[in-house]
Amino acid sequence: MAWILLVVAGLFEVVWAFAMKQSDGFTKLIPSVVTIVGMLISIVLLSLSMRSLPLGTAYTIWTGIGALGAFIVGIVFLGEQLNFTRVCAAVLILSGLVMMKMSSSD
């Protein structure tokens, strides 16, 4: 159950990051509210997952999901650049996440 909570927490990290970009520096109400609510949900779920997962594992996976998710959302929805170097960086992040999961006994 902790892993499910952690993955959902990571997905909410992507939601709030995207909403924060859309908030235009917190000048738009709805995206600003989505940002704050998304942050709260993400952090609460992260903290619940950390009841049984090690800090280093949980935090690394959470930030990795957020980083990869933001990378993908940026490309798909915001027209951000997709090039070989950025893809290589994303693959390295994903590799690190897989290795972190494999190293965890939980």
Query: Helix-strand pattern, N to C?
Result: HHHH
Percent strand equals under 5%
Count of helical regions: 4
Largest sheet: none
Number of domains: 1
- Total DSSP E strands: 0
Structural class per helix/strand content?
Answer: mainly alpha
Radius of gyration based on Cα positions: 15 Å
Structure description:
The chain is mostly helical and about 110 residues long. The protein has one domain. Helix content is about 80%, strand content about 0%. The protein is built from 4 helices and no strands. The chain has helices at about 1-20, 30-50, 55-80, 85-105. The radius of gyration is 15 Å and the shape is flat.
Features:
about 110 residues, mainly alpha, about 80% helix
